[in-house]
Structure formats: structure tokens, C-alpha cells
Amino acid sequence: MKAKAALLPIIALFIACSSVGERNAKVVSENNDLAYRLRYTDISASLQAAKKAYSCSSGNPDGKAEALNNMAYVAYQQMRYDQTLHLLQHVYGFSRNQLELLCADVLTMKVMQRIGRGKSFFDARLRAQRRLSRILSEESNLTERQKHRLHYALTELHIVASTYYYYLGQDSAARSEIQEAAQYVNLETDTTQWLYYHYMLGSGGLVDGTPEEVTITEFNHLFRVYTLAKANHFTYFEANALQSLSAMVADSIRANWLKQQRIDAYSYLFGEHIQWQKDSKLSLRYQFAAALSHHSIALFQQYRDLFQTACAMRTLGEVYFTAEHYDDALKSFRKALHLASDYRRSPYQVTPWLAGIHENLSLTYSALGDKLSADNHRNIYLDLLDESRQNKELDSRKALLKQEVHSEQVQFFFLLLLVVLVAALSILYYRQLKRRSLSSERQVREIGSSDDFKQAKHQLQKLLQESEDCLEESREECEVVQQRILNEQKRHILQRTKLSVVYAIIPYLDRVIAEVRKLDEMGKNASEHLSYVQELCTGMMTINDRLTSWIQMQQGKLGLQVSRFPLKDIFGVISMQQHAFAQQQLLLEVPEIDFLVKGDKALTLFMVNTLVDNARKFTPVGGKVTILADSIDDFVEISVCDTGVGLSQEDVQILNASKVYDPSRIGTKNASKGFGFGIMNCKGIINSYKKLSSLFNVCDFGVESQEGQGSRFWFRLPRVLSLLFVFIFTSFAHPMPQRCYELFDSTYNANLQGRFVDAWYYADSALSIVEEPIDTSLLVSLYNEQAIAAQALGDWETYRQSNAECVRLHRLFSTDLSLASDCQRLEKMNEDSRVLYVLIVLLLIASLALFYMVVLRHRLRHRASLKDLYQRLSSVLHSFPKNADTLVDELKDISLNLDQPQLRQPVCELQEKFTSALAKLQENNEFIEDFKEKSQKQRFEHDRLYVMNQILDNSLSTIKHETMYFPSRIKQMTDDMQQKGVDAETQHTLLDLVTYYRHIYMLLYEQAQRQTDQGLLRLQSLAIRDLFAYASKIYGIETHPTEIYVKGNETLLHMLFDQMFAVVPEDASLYIEEHDSMTYIVCHVSGQPLTHEQLSDLFSPQTQRLEYLVMRQIVREHDTACGHPGLRLVAENTEAGYKISFSLLSTHKPTNS
Amino acid sequence: MDKFKVIIVEDDKLELKGTQQILQTEVPEAEIIGTATGEADFWKLMREGQPDLVLLDLGLGGSTTVGVDICRQLRTRYASMKILVFTGEILNERLWVEVLTAGADGIILKTGNLLQRDDIVQVMHGRHLVFNEPFLEKVMARFRKVVCKEQASVDAFVEYEIDEYDERFLRHLALGYTKDMIAGLRQMPFSTKSLEKRQVDLTNRLFPERERSGVNAVRLVVRAIQLHIIDPENLVADEQ
Lengths: 1153, 240
Fold this sequence. Notes:
CATH class of the largest domain in chain B: Alpha Beta
Mean pLDDT of chain B: 91
Low-confidence stretches of chain A: 722-736
CATH superfamily of the domain at 1-183 in chain A: Tetratricopeptide repeat domain
Shape of chain A: flat
Largest sheet of chain B: 6 strands, parallel
Distance between the termini of chain A: 94 Å
Number of helices of chain B: 10
Structural class of chain A: alpha+beta
Largest sheet of chain A: 7 strands, mixed
Helix content of chain A: over 70%
Oligomer: heterodimer
CATH architecture of the largest domain in chain B: 3-Layer(aba) Sandwich
Strand content of chain A: 5-15%
CATH superfamily of the largest domain in chain B: Response regulator
Structural class of chain B: alpha/beta
Radius of gyration of chain A: 47 Å
């Protein structure tokens, strides 16, 4: 009603205006019509006509407004957007003609669309729609000319809205807008709008159908526009149509469809234009496309529309780009940018278009290989895109309005409620007051069922659950680490066993030394003594052989600690050797690149170190050792290359192909030996990866070498990305976004470092796991990074897809299309409610004042105290779990300071409810702390053992490696002495050699000994029954029940059984015998007794099986730990086979078990 | 030296051979009545005939310390039998003590010049504690260390001018006495205040100037132990 009332005087004015100054009015309207008609044929003539209309329009505000609109349109065509807006402001300033104001709104929308100001666009659209509703309500009063003008405005309104939506990527909205426009278009009455409409349909994106149908339909529209515009000299549309056709022809698929279906029109255009382009470098089709563009440019230049000239220039550039003539494309794009930049100083820039041209430039530079410029333009492109982010203000306005509406609603209802209350209270004074107080009191009493309480309770349960989970996790972690410690302990026992074998050589050596010393006193007995020395040497060689085979056997059983780690950590350590290399006048090159790999970090370091050491040994002065890391498929290949002496083809063959070989035979042609051992270790490690899991199938090791030219040793570890996928798809549903962020970081870094293939791969991986409801900004960034990578790689197809997605999401993300209408609706609601609100407020203020004075004042105080109590309780509950530590105390405090003693009970109940749960929580947290501490301690313990074992491995290798050849050398010398007789000099040489051998040997032994765990074994009272249960459970051994307890270490005794049943047939039986204070655990094997030889050698270092020695070591450990020397480990033959028995100290049943 | 009978217990055949050779060439008086490679073999031999001397290896087969037990049993059954223990455990001093406690007449370490005629002669003449040279060297090294430590204590008393009250004061501080308690001791005619003065004085004597700041009673006592002024193994309180 109000709106209609407001309209009346305006329409009256409208009518009044048309009747004043009729002659002048005629000139004005004629010139305005002319200006409108010439708008798309001759821009300067159109301007002149508009100016003439303006000059004659004094006293004719409508004509003046129309003239100004026409002038503004010309300014718009010439890209003078500031001038356009200035002229339109003028129209807004004086005109009351809703029709002209509507035209001004539409033109404002056009400007805003072009300069990419979404907010202002919507503002103008809102205004236009409001005006339109008023005008349409009075449509019957309009003259014929005014109706034409209205139809023009309506067509423009829908077309520009359609264009706006089209650029936002909102194809359906764009289509519905263009369909709206269709009803106002009429070829007879308004050719320009008809052309405009059909050009819009032809220019793309607004037609439904298969791609082929779309192409043909669009072509038909464009061709019609072209022919009609050409015939009627509508230069603007002629040029526009040509420009769009050019783009269409440049696309090979679309051009083919045209040739197939519209060959007539196609050849007509072809014949007409082919002479425009004389560039024979291009194929005929591209020549044709370029010709169309050139024609279009010429027409726009003639028409003097700078912006469209620039557009056509850009189209030409795109044709060149598609034809892969990047130099020409670059020229065209630069020219286009230059043209558009003429008006860059103006505050209004064609931001979206500029963004586009920068993108083109970025791509072209990229294609030309100028990465720097490409990046530069891409950055400008992204900045401009960001600039065209819209609706921030609108957004905030909506939020504000919504808030207002909401608060007004609340206030409104509140007031209404009070009105009711006032009425009711005035009647039911006491009852009401009492009830209210009671309700407050009840609220306090029922605090136990309040939301705050429920929430606090929920929080508490959640916390409890979390702590339970965490507790479980910590417990499991503890167990895992404990298990690992046990494994390391077992491994340590093995190492000690081997060390004891090493030690067994020393008495032999001492004997040899003593014998050699006495040689000269022997006289004729010398030969006998020499042969004794030779026997000793054979003994030492046997022990050495055993040791070697055991160390080799160990290769496949390396304990691996697999983790994910960056290779740069390893390379960082290796690069510390650069100084040492420089001292030997060698160059060590370590790569800067970094990959995440999966493997045992310590062992990977060991491998690289070994290979680098080898390379150093075999590279002469001035040479170079290079470490490389390449990412291939799903693994990383780490190579160590040197310029050293190289290996023979046979050696390479042996190293690559054989699993076990004699390391000492590798590289024997060179002066120094020892090539093969480290390599064998490396191969062993790689093999153990393969055995560990199929994830490590990509692991490999290899050697390439040319004698005299150098070698390349390489190994492969899985890249961590592939594992990531396994995890994502198998175990992690929840942390998906986290993975995405990680992948995004990888992508970003890869792009930054120029690893575009990786970046492409990472982005693709991330996008493949992304689901829609994820953070849109992450998606935008991901597409952007993929676009950058694709651009750098020249993969235009992927680039286009990614970039389009990036831009689409970016716009979608920054624009809410419903915002404008929402704002409008909300404003209206605000207006309506405000009136009501004022009325009610007035009424209420009066009644409230009365009510307060008469009734409420002192009663309120009582209620306030109840309310305060309730609020204090709520706030205590509400702050949970932040106040978990103090909650109980706070409740206690409240209950002690209560005004109303009758309310103490509910507060106390509340207090009780929390006390026990919080205590439980506290207890859990303490347990978690304990477990954490424990597992930290255990981890430390584990690491200590692990490192110790690892070093012992190396020490044992060194001992074996460095001292292997001595016994045979000694033997050889004694052979010579045997033949040639003993003389003082040879005796002296031999003594020197043997002494030196012992010295080295003892040195190395003591060094290794230092690495053994000096801590005493922890012994406990163990039930034989349990030990037997283990043996029968794992090995199915027959056992005899017993109730005897012994002192022992369970882990080691289990290990002893493991060792025993590895060498003893499983049909053996276990029983016990007791002598003195010792319990003998006897394992009886029926069948063949052992030979005398076997019996005497079973536990000696010459034994065939390491297991016997491990058993001996375990018994020895118990012997040392229980402080009672004399524990036995004996093998004896029996009547029906043989038995192996070992003794442990008997003890009593533990009291606290 | 008269002729005597010997049993050699040794699990390693090569070593057995070596020992036999030594006896044959250097101790012609010795008659080897048997050799054993394990515990069971040995007791069987013992039942056949009693030797005058047993050369006993400490470890036999899988039982690496069984010699200690055998030695103990032998000593119990044949009080006058001579037992000489052979061991390759050249780093395990604890076992040496065990062997001697079990009643062995001597220990021959399987290193250096091994078994000498002299060693056998001495054992056969009834000497106890017969050791070969490598063993004695190791014992001497230990002995030297102990003696040096004692000398260091004497030197410290002289160098830092420690009197009996200083020693008593420090010893009781180490035992956890407070200064009040120390002042209450019968042989300590000092007040708490003068004990405090003595502590400052001791700090000045025992620490170089730049290390003196922040020295408390604990640090002072530790320093005294480090300088061998008080012996942590011999901390006994005086009578009250």
C-alpha cells in the first residue's frame, strides 16, 4: 500500500513532463532514438545524437535522462567507466522517471559486471527489480515508446544477469535468465536487441544439448547475427559474431562438426575471409580462424570500441596459442593487454578480463619456457581473481540484518510475554509471585536434570572414555616396547654367545706363543712341537669358520625398526664426512633433494655409510664420490657413484646374482680387499626388508661397474606416499582431511622446488581422496597447485580442467547468490516489525513501570538470589571440564554459603555425582602418566640394547674380518720350519707374528666386550610346571608334571627351550631330577645315541650348531646371576638314546604370586 | 721330588695334549694315570685309583664353572689331595676367589707362560696359593691399587692438615649426623658454633678458591671421600 502511495506522485510527474515543451520534446526524442539506433553501428554518431538531445532537453527531465543514459552507454563502450558512472549519477540525481532510472540501473549492472564488482552489481539489480515491480504495476499507462524502452531495459537486464551468471559458472541460472530475455525480443521493433540476444546465445554456454548440437546451434545463431548485422551495418555485432566464430573455428573438433553439417555457411565465411590472413606458417583452418579475428579487430577499431578490440585481439592470441605459435600468441596477448591498459589509471578496471589475459600470458610464457614471467603473470592472475571476490560486504550486511531481525523477534515476543504477565499479575498477584519463586526453587532442586548438568555429565563421560582409550593405548604401547626389548635381549644373548666363541681362540693362541718361545730349547723334539702348533692353528681355523658361518647366518634375521623418515636426515650425517674426504683429496657430493621413505633409519644410514666408505677406499686421489636420490614410480633409488678402480664383470655378476659368496674373493684383483663384506650386509638388509612385508617388494640392491672407470651401487626403498594410500584406504577414515593437508603441503613444496611431476602426482592423489564437504579453500588451493604443475609441464588439458575448477570454486566460494534477495527480504521484515515494535514498546513501558512500582520490586530480590544460585551452579557446570580440578570444591563452597538451607541437599547430591567420576578420571590419568613414563624408560632401554647389538654386529664382523688369515699364515710358517728346520730368525719372526695376532685379537675382543650388557640378569622364582607348559605348548614336547620351583629368568629359559628344540627332535620328553640344591631339567631323546665325538664337541666352540653354544651361554648367565658357580649343562648317552640336561638352583614357591 | 700320580681333567683335546706334553717334558716325576674330558669321566677315574695331584679345568663342556663344584667335593672327600685349577677365565676375578674358597691349592691362568715345572714342584711340596706368573701379575696390579689408595689417605692427612677432630667431624657428617648431634659426641669437645667454623675452615682447606662457593656439607663429605680422607667402606660412628 505504502509503495503504491509513493508511486502516485511520480507517475503524475511523469505524465506532466511529457506534455511540456512539445516541440523541443520531439527533437529530443528523435535524437535519443537516433542515438539508440546508432549505438551498435557508429559510436561517435550515436554520441553526437545523444549530446544534441541533451542540449535540447532543458525543461524535459525525461528526455534529458534518456540522453544522459545514451551518453553513458557510449562512455561504457569506450571503457570510460568512471565517466559512465558519473553520467548515471547525474541521472539518479535529478530524474524521477522510473523507466530511465531502470535503464540507468541496468547500465550500472553492465559496468559492475565488466569491472567485476559483484556487490555493486547486486545492489543495482536489487534497485532495478524494485523499480520494475512498480513500473509493471502501472504498465497499462505506458505509451508505445515507453513500452519499447521498457522492453529494451528488460532484455538488457536479463542478458547482463545471464552474462554475470555465466562468468560465475552458474550455467543453469545463466540459461534461465537468457530464457527470460527471449520474451521481450522482437526483430521487427528492435533489431539491436534481437541481435544482442542471438549473439549472446551464439557466444557460448547458454544452449542445451550434446556438444555437437550445441556447436551447430551456436553457429547458427552467430551466422544469423553476422549476416543480419553485416547487411544493416551493425558493426558491433558483426565484429562480435566474427570473434566468436573465430574461437569456434580454432577448435578442431567443433570446426569438423561445422564442416560436416554447415559446409555451406562455413565455406561462405571461409571464402570471404581467407585473404585476411597471409600467414602461410599456419594450417588452413588456423589461417581461417586468425582471419576471422583480424576482421573482427578491424571492425572494432573502425567502431572504436577499445575493450572489444582488446577482446578480439585476445581471441586472435588464443588462435595462435592453439596453433602452438606461441611467439605470435604472445604478441597478440601483449597488444590486447596494452589496449585494455590504456584505461588502467581509471579507478575502474575490467578486472575479470584482465585476470583472463594474464592467465593467457602466463600460459604462453610457460609454453615458451620463460618460467619466471609465467609465474609472474599467474600471480597477477590469482591476485585479480581474488580482487573480484565479492559479497563480503553483502555478507556482513545480511548477517547484521539477520541479527537485527532475530533480536527484534526475541524482543517482540519478550514484550508480548510481559504484556500477558502484566495482565495476569495484576489479577493473580500473590499466586503468581509464589509460583515464580517456587519455579526458581524447583529449577535449583532439579539442577540434576538441567542441560548444563547433562552436558557436563556428557563431557565427563567423554573424558572418562577418552582416558580409558588413552590408558589402553599406553598399555598396548608399553607391551609393544616390552616385546621389542625382549627381542633385543635375546639378540644380545646371541651376540654374547658369539663373543664367547671369539674368546675361545685366546687359550689356543697363548699355547701357540708358549710353544714357539720354547722352540729353540726343544732340539730334536721341535718337530713334534711344531705339529702341535699346527694342530692348534687348525683348531683356531675351525673356530673362525664356525664364527663366519654364524655371522653370515644372522644376515637374514636382522631386527628391523621400520619408520617413516626424510632422506635428508641421512644425507645430513653423511655430508659430515666431506671434510674427511677432502683430506684424502676426494670430493664427496651429497644431494640437497629430499624424499620421505620407509625403512630402518639406523640401517639405511649404515648402508649409505658402508657404500660411501667402500667408494672412498677404492677411489684414487682426485676422484669423486656422488650420492644420488631419484624418485621413480613408488620408490626412491639411492645410489653411490664413484670414479674409482671399479670391479670386474665377474665380480659384478657375483655381487648381483649370488646370495652367498666368499666376500674375500671379491675385488682380489685390486690391491686391497674387503669389498664384498659390506656389500653382503647391505644385500642382507634389503633381503630382510623383502621378507618383512610385501610393502617392501620394491626394495632392491644392485651394482653397476666398469673396470677402471668406477662403480655405482644402488638400493631402493619405498617412497612413503604409496604407504600413505594404504593407510588411508585401510585404516584411517577419520584423519582424511589431515592427509589432504599433508598432501597439499607436499604439492606446494614440490611446486616451489620445481618438482612438477611430483607436485602433479601429489595434487592428483589429494584430489582423489577429497570428498565434497571438505574445506573449499583447500580444494581451491589444490586445484591451483595442480594447475601450476600442469602449466609448467605443458599439459594444457589438465591445466584447463584444474584452472576451471579452481576459478569455479573460487567464485562459488566467495559468492552467495541468494544473498541479495535475502537482504531484500530481511530489510522488509525489519521495516514491518519496527513499527509494531515501537507500539508495543510504548505500551509496555507504561505497564511495566506500573507493575514494577506496585508489585515486583522487593519480590524480585528474593527471586534474584535464587536465580543467582542457579546461575552459579550452571556456570560451574558449564565451565566443565575446564574446572575439572576445582569443580568439587566450588560446589562445596556454594553449598556452605547457601541462604536457603532447604536447597543444600540438591547441591550436595550434585557434588557427590561428580566426586567419584572425577576420582576415577584422576586415577586413569595417573595410570596414563605411569605408563607413559614406563614406556619412555623402556624405549630408552630398548634403544640402548639395539645400538649395543648393532655395534656388536659390527665388532664381530671386524674381528672376524681383520684376524681371519692369521692362523693359516702361522700354519704356513710352521710348515716351512718343519721342512727347513728351526733357526733363531724364523722363530723370532713367528713369535712376532703370533704375539701381534694375540695383541690385535685381544684388543678387538675387549672392545667388543665393552659393548655387552654388564647388568646382572634379573632372576625370579619360576615354576617348572610353567616352563614345561611353554615347551609343550610351543613344541608339543611330552612333559612330566612337577611342583618344583627354580631360580631363573623366564625369557632366557624360554629362549633356551627354543634353542634346544631347534636341534633336538620333537618327540623328546622333559622331566626333572634333583641333586643337592640343584634341579636338573632333563630332555631325553630316544633313538640313536650320540657318538663319542659328538658328545665331547657338543658344547665346544667347534660344535656344528650355534644353538648348543647359546644354551651354554644362557646357563652361564644364570650361573653368574645366582652367585652359585657350578651350574651344569651336560649331554650324555643313555640306554635308549641320549639326554641333555641343565641345572638350575632350586628355590621355594614365591610367596606373593 | 718323588714320583707322583696325576689326573688331568680338560675338555679341550688340543689343550689336554699341550698339558700332557708339558708334564712329560718338564716334570718327568709325574705319572699321568688318567685324563678326563667331563665330570662323569673324572669321577669314574677317581673310583679306579687315587692320584696325588689333580690338574682341573674350570669349565667342562657346557658347564662352564663346574670346576668350582668338583674342587669343593674333592677337598671334602680327600683333604690332602693336591688340586691345581686351570682356567681360561682371565677376566673373571670373581671365579678365582670362588675356586680358592672351594679349596684349590693354586690357579694356573691359561695365558702367558702357562704351566711351569716350578708350579708343580711347589704344589707337591705342600705349598698353598701357587699361582703362575700371569695370575700373580694381575693380583699385583690389584694389590698396588689398594696400597696406593692407603698411601693417598696418609698423604691427604698431611697435605690438608687433617687432625683427628676433622676426621671425626667429616665421618659423622657422612653418616648423616647434624652438627648438634656431633657436638653431643663424647670425644668432640666443641660447640655447634665452633663446628660450623670448622666446616668453613675445612671447606677452605679442601677446595681451591674458585670452587668454594656453594659448598654444603654433602659436597664437603664427597670431597673428603675423593681425597681418601674418609673411607666409605669404613664408616662407623663413635660412641655417644
